Amino acid sequence: MKRRLLSLIRKEFIQIVRDPRTLYITLVIPVIQIFLLGYTATSDVRNVPLAVFDQDHSPSARKLLDAYRAADYFSLTFDANSESELRGLIDSGQARAGLIIPPDYGDSLLAGRTARVTFVLDGSDPNSASTSLAAAQLIGQAHATEIMVARLAQQGLALGQSLPVEVATHVWYNPDLISAFFMIPALIGMILQLVTSMLTATAIVRERERGTIEQLIVTPIRSWELILGKIIPYVLIAFLDTVEILVVGTWWFKVPIRGSLGLLLALSGLFLVSSLGIGLFLSTVARTQQEAMMLTWFTLLPTVFLSGFFFPLNAMPVALRVVSYAVPLRYYLIIIRSVILKGVGLEAVMPEVVALALFGLVLMGAAALRFRKRLD
């Protein structure tokens, strides 16, 4: 039995090495994905193009512009000469926000009156607009506080009393709120599921397409040996991809690994059982490699959207949140983010571990029941 299994594993590795497309998918694409998504899959809003219509041109107006320029949220890209020109820049998408400074801005400040400016945002992108709105308000409030303190200093006064409420904020695990720290661990889960499910689904279908499955049928090898011989090479490749992504994430994106690396790899192996079960199940449904790849992408896209990879689950409708409990990647993302960023142990993620174990048993069982060592 051991010799038959090792022979099948060796045969599968030879096929992988001789197929440059498989090697490219398994070794190169995960690195490309982590670089692309590591830089592009981010919720950070920086360098928003800002159009300015300054009707005052006073030193006070220049100080206000310097306050917006000092923050990296906005890039003062355009100087508009009229409101219609500013609107045209926003309508064309060249600018995402606009700042209108009235002609009496400086005089109002010198007279001790409240000076008002108008900040216009392009709301077609709600995520960018909401962040830009909060940043614009904070910058304006901070600048207004500086002006107030300067006025009191000129009058020989000082703030003699502290504020009645002071909120001390502490950000744990990711103090600088770097999106890469949140996204890179999730990329491991997405890439693991994509690579393992796609390669496993196409591996068995490839045997059927090439007619080599007939040779396997006439051998004394058992069905479960054939399944193990097919999936074990891809398990090893998946672990290689995991290490590859972790190295790139820690070395290039500076993502810290605060938890146990051994625990992380062990729980990744548990997640692989579910991913391999999905791929094996798809291989029993598909008849061609192209069909297997299409089915893999069909299952991957809703998995990504319903797992909390891009969008928070709490913001979804109740019906979709209920559906998300049937997505194994949901539980793995909680595990890997907790282990890498928070440094937690097994006891903190035990509910997710149990859920992944159940999914693995169900998916592998369903795939094994459908799989038959025969031509269908």
Please tell me about this protein's structure:
The chain is mostly helical and 376 residues long. The chain folds into 2 domains: 2-41 and 178-370, no CATH class; 48-154, 3-Layer(aba) Sandwich (abc type-2 transporter like fold), CATH 3.40.1710. Helix content is 65%, strand content 6%. It is built from 14 helices and 4 strands. It has a 4-stranded mixed sheet with strand order 2-1-3-4, sandwiched between helices. Helix 3 links the parallel strand 1 and strand 2 (74-79). Helix 7 (179-210) runs antiparallel to helix 11 and helix 10 (261-285) runs parallel beside helix 14. The longest helix has 32 residues, at 179-210.
Taken in chain order, the helices and strands follow as HHEHEHEHEHHHHHHHHH
Number of strands: 4
Give the biggest sheet: 4 strands, mixed
Strand order of the largest sheet: 2-1-3-4
- Give Rg in angstroms: 29 Å
Q: Determine the fraction of residues in helical runs and give it as a percent range.
A: 55-70%
Ends distance: 26 Å
The amount of beta strand, in percent, is 5-15%
Q: Tell me, briefly, the overall form.
A: elongated
Low-confidence spans? none
Return the domain count: 2
Mean pLDDT: 82
Please count the helical segments: 14
Q: By helix and strand content, what is the structural category?
A: mainly alpha
